[in-house]
Amino acid sequence: MWQYDKKLQYPVKIKKTDPKAAQIIISQFGGPDGELAASMRYLTQRYTMPYDDLRGLLTDIGTEELAHLEMVCAIVYQLTKDLSIDEIKKSGFDKYFVDHTTAVYPVAASGLPWRAEYIQAKGDPITDLHEDLAAEQKARTTYDNILRLVDDPDIREPIKFLRQREIVHYQRFGEGLERTKERLNSKNFYACNPSFDKNCGRK
Amino acid sequence: MNKKCRIKRYIDALDFAIYEMVLYLDTHPTDRKAQAMFNDYKQRRADAVKEYESLFGPYITKVLHNDPKGRWEWIDGPWPWENEGDD
User: How far apart are CA B43 and CA A5, in angstroms?
Assistant: First the structure.
């Protein structure tokens, strides 16, 4: 089960509203490579992982991604606080505003709502870990792109933190993949699926 | 940054370092050096919380917090996504 720590993992203190930036950054909430996808992907894959270290890793990274989701939502919340109708109209935020006012709703920058198809839980640890490695790089590139588009240092600081975390997660998943291969037949890693087949490799 | 804010930030930094060690230990469960770092960070965090509480009262971030004062402070703002409060 989960406990909640009533604080952000890294501070978000934005002084200037910017609904245009909010529409971009919201992709890291509801977009294909965002934190909602990341947390759901890892927390879902963990159930059929065959080894304790992978169960731990996916649970703990998945939980951290929930904290990152919270940070992204805090950024969007602060960027859209106390907007005037004039600002809403001028920034193109009116298209989002009409359906959500200033609620923080999981969509991509394109306006497409979040979907479960953004994640996969394939029930094979080698496959799932490759999905996870790719997910971390996709998230890192998305944060790179946000940094190209946004100048405000109050926004850049938490974004840079989140980007750095993706790189560390990638490292951990890489280690998870190595540990998995070490337990399988070195002549053929794909001979069986340790999540499903009995007597597949060693623990 | 005042002292309250500085200690809070220090606790936050330690919480981050502790969680980073959790992830590392997940894939390196027998690494003794890492376990020692983890324990060191946890001790420093406990000391920092103690210092905070001696000066400023209860440090409340968990719902099952210590020292409920006869009113339910858990719900008190600011909540983490708000840009308010003394840090």
Answer: 19
The complex's ipTM works out to 0.93
**Positive or negative: CA dihedral A17, A64, A4, B42:** negative
Distance from CA of B53 to the nearest CA of A (A): 17
Residue A130's CB is within 10 A of a number of other CB atoms, namely 15
Query: Quick check: A166 and A143 in contact, CB under 8 A?
Result: yes
CB contact A16 to B (< 8 Å): no
The whole-number pLDDT of residue B87 equals 55
Exposure string over B50-83, b if 16+ CB within 10 A, otherwise e: eebeeeeeebebeeeeeeeeeeeeeeeeeebbee
The B residues from 39 to 58 touching A (CB cutoff 8 Å) are none
Q: Which pLDDT tens digit goes with each residue over B24-43?
A: 999 999 999 999 999 999 99
Cα–Cα distance, B55 to B4 (Å, whole number): 8
